[in-house]
Amino acid sequence: MAIAKAERLMNLALCLLGTRRPLSKRELRGSIEAYLEAGSDDAFNRMFERDKDDLRELGLVIETVENLDGETGYLARRDSNRLPPVQLDAEEAAALGLAARVWQQARLAGAASGALQKLRAAGMPEADNPYEHSAIEPRIPVHEAAFEPLMLACRDRRPVVFEYRKATAARPGTRHVEPWTLECWRGHWYLAGWDRDRGAERVFRLSRITGKVRSRAGAFTAPVPDVVTVRETVESWAGETATRSARIRLRAGSGYPLRSRATSTRELGDGWDELEIPYGHGLDAWLVEFGPDVVVLEPADLRADVVDRLRAVAKG
Amino acid sequence: MAANAIDQTRRMLSLVTYLRERPGAHVADVARAFGITEDELISDLDVLPMCGTSFRGGDLLDIDTDGDRIWWRNPGALGAEAAEPLRIAADEATALLVAARAVATLPGLREGDRQALLRATAKLEAAAGEAAGASSRLSVTFESEGGVFADVDRAISERRRLWVRYYSPARDELTEREVDPIRLFAVGHTYMEAWCRLSEARRTFRLDRVAEIRLLDEPAAPPELELRDLSEGLVQPAAEDPEVVVEVGPGGRWVAEYYPHDSAEELADGGLRITLRTPEPASLRRLALRLGRDGRIVAPDELAESARSAALAALAAYEEPSAQDGQS
């Protein structure tokens, strides 16, 4: 039976952490059973390179040193791998315990528990069940396949290319992007970055990325800004940055969300109220949802848009 | 069985440090401290005796368990330094810091918890050092309605009934009801799960749709319920729910992003034919109206017809002279 990968990784980690002098590949191969069983040199080399990458992924700092004979040796020095002293009390431990549970994405959930386990090993006290401390059970949803490759690309500052379908476009288009940050807002993930083809900053919604996200060689060409404003961009898509106002008639008792946003409301007495509401992008579509309970008074362009939409629905 | 060799390796490295300090530790305690099941721990304990630093002469870790307690018989095998706690990796720092910062934005978080979280975050940033840097490339904001949240939170901790005026977008109406709150959770928006005494059923309420809320003096008495598994998504249509078919053009593709659906078939014009199920098809009239020329209801007929007649009724108002005031 093949030796489990976790066993092989663990042995390699312990060997590299336990040595004071660099160990050559030959020595490591002679020490770790899974490598002895690896068969060909090629198979061993491939396995060894992958294992080293995996250990680095989980945080091990592995140095590569050439000895006098020109042979490459490896070691994980204690001082570069040791956790600095950290003192957490039981309340702080409980708070981190709650935070570690919010990810609904395997890689981040694993990494968050890994961090907690390291802190626990370093003496972080046991917390009570965090749910007894707080009534809230926050969850960060991650359903988008593009999330993980983009997260890694943001981390490593690697350019990417993907197919992206704009909200209203029939076909996706290819976008070359230098990814800066990912932000989750109202349960949806967005990417902000430099769009190379457009030569401008852009925000992308992850659910509109189709197919695979591929990495591109080379470095970023545009400077990464200190502050990236994903939310403002998304809010303006959603029409929340209104620049004008509209006057509508609303049937009494209906349209609560419109009322809660109105800047003024006046009872007309005939079963209708008159409201003044902020007019931003997308208001026409929203007003149409209320069907015969809303009549747009002004501005004229909004009124025309709403009538236009209603006619389309009436035609069926 | 560990789902992932990297996670298991990471965990076993911490486990070695932890067990070294605690000879004879109980399986149940260690599993709880590590946030894993006892079976997962046992599977780690099966692997550890195969591990060691054999280049130094073949010392494997002599760790064993009788299923209740764990014994490490040669803790010297690794040398004094080799079992020290390991530094936090960049991905670990990112995962924990981003989550901690997000949780700290919850307006409903109790103040003591928020303070503890902020202290812990600062300590973690310091301990992670450079590894904390990349965590700024990911951020999450939860939304929640502060005042409503505080009342629900209080009702849960004092086990009291709530009166709410709640907006239902499907029917565009406000209803008043008494509910027994069960829990609060945040998935994008913040929700209250509660036993609704009006419908005698479990209901989920989005806090930003609560128009008014009041704590009542009656104790809450929700029936014993198994908590729903939220990882499956908030909306879980039942197989017996009626089917609705919507055809959208390219401009209506967003429907597939917002509505959980059974299928979304590509159409030749770049649109989609979306099949979904809902207990109340009438609630989709709003969607039909919103779509305008970007889509139409294919089935059921009654739903398509109700959207058409709503549009006709709305248009009639624009033909009345009284609606023309305000027009220049």
Task: Summarize the structure in short.
The complex is a heterodimer of chains A (316) and B (328). Chain A has 316 residues and is an alpha+beta fold.
Describe this structure in words.
The complex is a heterodimer of chains A (316) and B (328). Chain A is built from 13 helices and 13 strands. Chain A has 316 residues and is α+β, with helices and mostly antiparallel strands. Chain A folds into four domains: 5-81, Orthogonal Bundle (Arc Repressor Mutant, subunit A), CATH 1.10.10; 91-133, no CATH class; 148-237, SH3 type barrels (Roll), CATH 2.30.30; 244-315, Alpha-Beta Plaits, CATH 3.30.70. In chain A, helix 1 packs across helix 4 (41-57), helix 6 (90-100) runs antiparallel to helix 7 and helix 12 packs across helix 13. Chain A is elongated and about 95 Å long. The N and C termini of chain A lie far apart (65 Å). In chain B, 34% of the residues lie in helices and 25% in strands. Chain B folds into four domains: 5-83, Arc Repressor Mutant, subunit A (Orthogonal Bundle); 90-137; 146-224, SH3 type barrels, CATH 2.30.30.520; 243-318, no CATH class. Chain B has 328 residues and is of the alpha+beta class. The chains are: A alpha+beta (316), B alpha+beta (328). At the A-B interface, helix 1, helix 2, helix 4, helix 5 and helix 6 of A face helix 1, helix 2, helix 4, helix 5 and strand 4 of B. Chain A: Residues 244-314 form the WCX domain.
